Amino acid sequence: MTNTPEAHAPSRQAGEDRYKWTALTNTTAAVFMSALDGSIVLIALPAIFRGVHLDPLAPGNIAYLLWMIMGYRLVQAVLVVTVGRLGDMYGRVRIYNSGFAVFTFASILLSFDPFDGGHGAMWLIAWRVVQAVGGSMLTANSAAILTDAFPEEQRGFALGINQVAALGGMFVGLVAGGLLSAWDWRAVFWVNVPVGVFFTLWAYRTLRETTRRDGGRIDWWGNITFAVGLSATLIAITAGLQPYDGHTMGWTNPLVDVLIVGGLLLLAAFVVIENRASAPMIQLSLFRQRAFTFGNLAGLAISIGRGGMQFVLIIWLQGIWLPLHGYHYSDTPLWAGIFMLPLTAGFLAAGPVSGYLSDRLGSRGLATGGALLFGASFLGLMSLPIDFGYPVFAMLIALNGIASGMFASPNSSSIMGSVPARSRGVASGMRATFQNSGTAVSIGVFFSLMIAGLARSLPHTLTAGLQQQGVPAHVAAQVGGLPPVSSLFAAQLGVNPVHHLLQPSGVLAHLTAAQQETLTGSEFFPTLISGPFHSGLVIVFAFGATLALLAAIASFLRGTGTRPTAKFPAPREAATGEVLARPDK
């Protein structure tokens, strides 16, 4: 009997079905790990700095703290487009598999820090950068691998699951960091090792290239101007958070100004170079697609709002609300993660559902509605008192998580579905660049707004409060005049700021027992800072609501062309003859 193509059709179809679920499982684990490591350190920082015996609030050490948070984000923001382009050229699966190996290797070395103090912090920062390189290779190519593997009518669901894993990792990291660091600070890096080894081996055995590589050559000038320009801009934002020459922040530092201006000029030069390059790093023609352009702009605005909000909520809980409710400062990192569980639950519940619905209803309505709901949650948080009732707070952050889930999956599906198959790697990298840049910028922007709000009233409030408890005027003025960033970071790190700031002066030993108990208790600092902190909260949440409105407008402007067309090719496909998301037979 002669074998016909029709006889092999069921087996080919079964193989393709198995492969697409394999690709979804592996890439979902990858982006979850990559995102989790971007946020797990936020909660685990107190244990990490105690583990390497470093006082992060000592003069000059705030930089270590900032770079532990920002270094990972910066590298991912800069590299994802480049490694996405390399995936298009040399194979997405090849770059992706290499990223898994790099990420796992760096995780192992992070957990074996051989140094103490500043050298120990530098070891961690350096290997976090290497870890971020591996994470960039995973993030940039995962969405492209999925878009290749899944048919168009299931693409929204697959990308939705992947995007939920990516952002879910950010939220889960907040809880995991508290739980793991309560056991051992190294555990926040150990957790990646068995998972990384297993999925690295599995990826090498099961994933395959399903689209033709487009070859070409590397656009060196484009890569250099983009990487240096974006790096300079993000480094300037990080440096701007550090006190400079008697100022509460470093925005008056000439180096910051030079980095920002130079970075923006290089990014402008990058655009000129890409318009003239024969093999550009980024195909600027992709921005002619409304869904691609406005989807990325909406994603950038939401990323800025979401990243900054998480940072502010952590400080609010750890520095004020939990101490006011009787939690010891050393326990606040763990409990802050636990009390933020509704945020994670809301996102994990809404993300897959919105991805499923976007395949049937289209992306614009769901993404726009999610952005508006996201802004509404900011307005609700802005109306809360500092010492809020937890049920209302839990409802609002759950609403914020649901809104993020409603937006993320349809927006990713819309972006990835708007580009031709040969450009999916670079498109996935560009989408990740907008998201990671937004997260990196958000911490700088929100923190600057918060510090600006505190700087107006915190010095006087803190000085007066200390004097009322018997602290000499000159010591009270000295402590009150310290940059607000020190007080905020002390609160985030589970350190009693007043005790930490007064201890070097020795003044506590000369006060009465009652005064000492008041100053070093859990309520004195939170009560003092509540007024100034609320002023800062109003500013940052109003800014977040404005960003959400801009995201909703951008999302609405993407047009209706992203509605799925399972039976008939889209006009662009019909014109180019290019098939989207169909694996090679």
Could you characterize the architecture of this molecule?
By secondary structure, this protein is an all-alpha fold. The chain is 76% helix and 0% strand. The protein contains 21 helices and no strands.
Unreliable segments of 5+ consecutive residues: 562-585
Radius of gyration: 25 Å
Report strand %. under 5%
How far the N terminus sits from the C terminus, by CA atoms, comes to: 23 Å
- Strand/helix succession: HHHHHHHHHHHHHHHHHHHHH
Labels describing this entry:
single chain, 585 residues, mainly alpha, 21 helices, globular
Short structural summary:
By secondary structure, the chain is mostly helical.
Layout of helices and strands:
Layout: H1 5-51, H2 62-90, H3 92-110, H4 117-149, H5 152-183, H6 187-190, H7 192-206, H8 220-239, H9 254-276, H10 290-324, H11 332-339, H12 341-361, H13 364-382, H14 390-416, H15 424-468, H16 473-480, H17 484-492, H18 497-502, H19 513-520, H20 524-556, H21 571-576
